[in-house]
Design brief:
This protein is an alpha+beta fold. Helices cover 17% and strands 38% of the residues. It contains three helices and eleven strands. Strand 7 and strand 8 form a beta hairpin.
Length: 178
């Protein structure tokens, strides 16, 4: 069963936040390496950077927590869920254009914040024709229905904003998007 269309849930994960500094360094070191794949070139930057999880120490703590949250929201067995993820690295002046994640059979989408500069850059979700603004913080998960249009305002900071985007679907219906 997919997430409710009006879903916007946030949750802080202290144990996840504890590894953010190390993870941010690893992601920045690998983003232009041969093992990284970059997709979705918009407004002069690749919005999605894919780095294999086996190259990132402790990433499974965050991915496992995302699956636990999804199992609770979807009322599904965690072992029946599949997760696909990517990194979003926003440098000064970068934006993320409005988009959705409902291309395949996703049941739930979300973001986890690794590094958030002290700025007014926000995630905006359009739910039931109303804009909902989320002020991100390091260690925060934001979960929403895959068909929810969302965007991110400009990062005015010289420090990069780093997050993990993810889609969760059923292992039974797993597509290449996960």
């Amino acid at each position: 069963m997919p997430a409710p269309r009006d879903l916007c849930r946030t949750q802080y994960c202290e144990s996840c936040a504890a590894i953010n500094d190390d993870l941010a360094q690893q992601v920045l070191a690998l983003e232009h390496s041969d093992i990284a794949t970059r997709t979705h070139l918009f407004a002069g930057r690749y919005e999605n950077v894919y780095i294999p999880s086996d190259r990132l120490e402790h990433i499974n703590l965050i991915l496992d927590h995302a699956l636990e949250l999804a199992a609770d929201i979807l009322n599904e067995d965690r072992e029946e869920l599949a997760l696909g993820f990517w990194f979003n690295i926003m440098r000064q002046g970068d934006i993320t254009l409005p988009h959705t994640h409902d291309d395949y059979d996703e049941l739930l989408s979300g973001t986890y914040y690794i590094k958030v500069p002290d700025t007014d850059s926000r995630l905006t979700l359009s739910i039931n024709n109303q804009k909902h603004s989320v002020e991100p913080r390091e260690g925060m998960f934001v979960l929403f229905h895959p068909a929810t249009p969302h965007e991110v305002s400009e990062n005015p900071s010289p420090e990069p904003r780093i997050s993990i985007g993810f889609n969760i679907g059923s292992k039974k219906n797993q597509q290449s998007s996960l």
